[in-house]
Write a structure and sequence with these properties.
- With 115 residues, this protein is mainly alpha-helical.
- It has one domain.
- It has 6 helices and 3 strands, in the order E-H-H-E-E-H-H-H-H.
- It has helices at residues 12-21, 26-29, 47-57, 67-85, 89-95, 99-107; strands at residues 5-8, 33-36, 42-44.
- Strands 1-2-3 form a 3-stranded antiparallel sheet, covered by helices on one side.
- Strand 2 and strand 3 form a beta hairpin.
- Helix 3 (47-57) packs antiparallel against helix 4 and helix 4 (67-85) crosses helix 5.
- The longest helix has 19 residues, at 67-85.
- The protein is globular and about 45 Å long.
């Protein structure tokens, strides 16, 4: 299965470039990006989106992830895209999840990925 969305964590080079450009404000601006392979759109995660997806993205390493994690990330990134278009219902449901709920959801397998 090919994933539609790709998670891009900020690299060391990007962090250094921001440190040089804005030494006092760089920490607040360094957040990961999400790339939509279907439409070619790349967007930076907002602070609340990054905090919500952190339990999910910690399972992703170097672009490779288990099938359950990839499917869950695609659904979450799709919810973020819908949120930015004005459809917030699915994102609001994801934002209420705790890290323990994310872990139990992922360990339960694909049959439990339905909302």
């Amino acid at each position: 299965m090919r994933s539609q969305f790709e998670f891009e964590a900020p690299s060391l080079l990007k962090k250094v470039a921001l440190t040089i450009k804005a030494p006092h404000q760089w920490r607040s601006r360094v957040r990961p990006w999400v790339f939509d392979k279907k439409s070619g759109v790349r967007f930076q995660l907002a602070q609340d989106e990054h905090a919500t997806l952190k339990p999910l993205t910690c399972h992703m390493q170097n672009g490779s992830a288990r099938l359950e994690v990839a499917v869950a990330f695609d659904q979450a990134a799709g919810a973020i895209m819908d949120r930015r278009r004005g459809y917030c219902f699915e994102w609001n449901r994801l934002a209420k999840r705790t890290p323990a709920e994310w872990d139990s959801w992922l360990s339960g397998g694909l049959r439990r990925l339905r909302w």
